[in-house]
Design brief:
The protein is globular. The protein contains 14 helices and no strands. It is mainly alpha-helical and 285 residues long. 75% of the residues lie in helices and 0% in strands.
Length: 285
């Protein structure tokens, strides 16, 4: 029994970079949670999201993601949708900052006010760019030729996984922002509508894969499939995963954004349109 458990815990492809970043983020969060009062629900969301990231990238689950299309789609939905949504919904920014040593916090604040960072964030965190990247990365890595290249080159494979996770974090960060605009980067109303917009091309792509009658990803046959099931059945399951669970997660994100919008409205933090006085027509007798 212990050997079976170890098989799942031991990484399929070990990565020092991932391990250092993961442990570092976890260490900062633990330190910050000791200094700040963090509600249990937010802590739970953060740790569940972190656990999903670790399982998807650094356990034997990754083997199945490399050898079966529908398992790969599960991995991508976890990295791109669910884990980032949970982590961002925990609003860990202040907690992670509190976990830094004082000198690092001062340096981080100075960096945030620097011209270089403001120029970079104006582009990298622009809502249009972040939203387009969120959708484009799903579609680009779904192209059969791109999928084949990623499966044959471990560097591209890791780039694919990391890009999906980073784009997911950036997207949900602007959508679940609890502040009005400004300083938030997206208007609260658009935050609610955005998930409905971004899920549409994903649903279309999922439907195309689901109803395809040809093997779109023969690379999994070359790599060796993990399960002895019909190729088209596995592809159909993968398409449905892109179609239904991904859309449900984005719908949940939209509801969370709506909750924040209502909270801002109740607190009177939404910008009000100026009221123009009525023009009176003067008549001369």
């Amino acid at each position: 029994m212990p050997s079976v458990a170890m098989k799942w815990i031991v990484p399929w492809e070990f990565s020092w970079v991932f391990l250092v970043l993961f442990v570092g983020a976890a260490w900062l969060y633990v330190r910050g949670a000791r200094r700040l009062r963090v509600p249990p629900a937010r802590q739970a969301a953060f740790w569940v999201g972190m656990t999903i990231v670790y399982v998807a990238l650094h356990t034997y689950f990754d083997y199945y993601a490399e050898h079966e299309f529908f398992m790969h789609r599960i991995q991508q939905v976890l990295l791109h949708h669910l884990a980032p949504l949970l982590i961002v919904a925990a609003y860990p920014g202040s907690v992670l900052r509190a976990g830094l040593p004082l000198a690092w916090r001062v340096r981080l604040r100075r960096t945030g006010h620097s011209l270089a960072w403001r120029a970079f964030s104006a582009v990298a965190l622009n809502p249009a760019f972040v939203t387009a990247s969120f959708v484009a990365l799903i579609l680009v890595w779904l192209i059969p030729d791109m999928q084949t290249l990623a499966m044959l080159d471990w560097r591209l494979y890791r780039l694919m996984n990391w890009s999906m996770m980073i784009s997911g974090l950036a997207y949900w960060w602007i959508v679940l922002d609890h502040r009005p605009k400004p300083p938030g980067r997206m208007a609260p109303g658009w935050r609610v509508l955005s998930p409905a917009i971004t899920m549409t091309p994903q649903i279309v792509a999922g439907a195309i894969v689901t109803f395809s009658k040809t093997d779109l990803y023969p690379i999994f046959e070359i790599c060796g499939r993990a399960f002895t099931m019909n190729v088209l059945t596995g592809q159909l399951i993968g398409g449905v995963i892109m179609w239904v669970p991904a859309a449900m997660i984005e719908s949940a994100g939209g509801l969370l954004a709506l909750q924040q919008w209502l909270r801002l409205s109740r607190n009177g933090r939404l910008p009000r349109r100026p009221v123009h006085p009525r023009r009176h027509t003067v008549t001369h007798s």
